[in-house]
Amino acid sequence: MHQVHSPLMMAMHDPVLHRFIAFLADKKAEQEADPGKHLKIELDRDLILSVRESFRQNILDGERHLHLLAHLLASVVLQGEFELHSNVIGVLPGDDDDRPFLIRERITRETLFSVMDIDLGNQMLDNFRYKKDLDWVPLQLSANFIEYLPAGRLDTGVNRLTSRVKAEEELWNKVTDELFMIDQLVSRDKHLRQYSKFVKDIFGIKIVCEDDATCQKVHEKLLAVTVAGRDWEKLDELAFVALPANGSSPTDKLLEFVETKDYLTCEPSERKKTGWRAIKSVVRWHGRLFEIQVQPLSNYYLEIDHMAGPSHRSFKLNRDSMRDEVARRIPLYGFYRDLLKMLFMESDVSFECENASVVIR
Question: pTM surpassing 0.85?
Answer without folding.
Answer: no
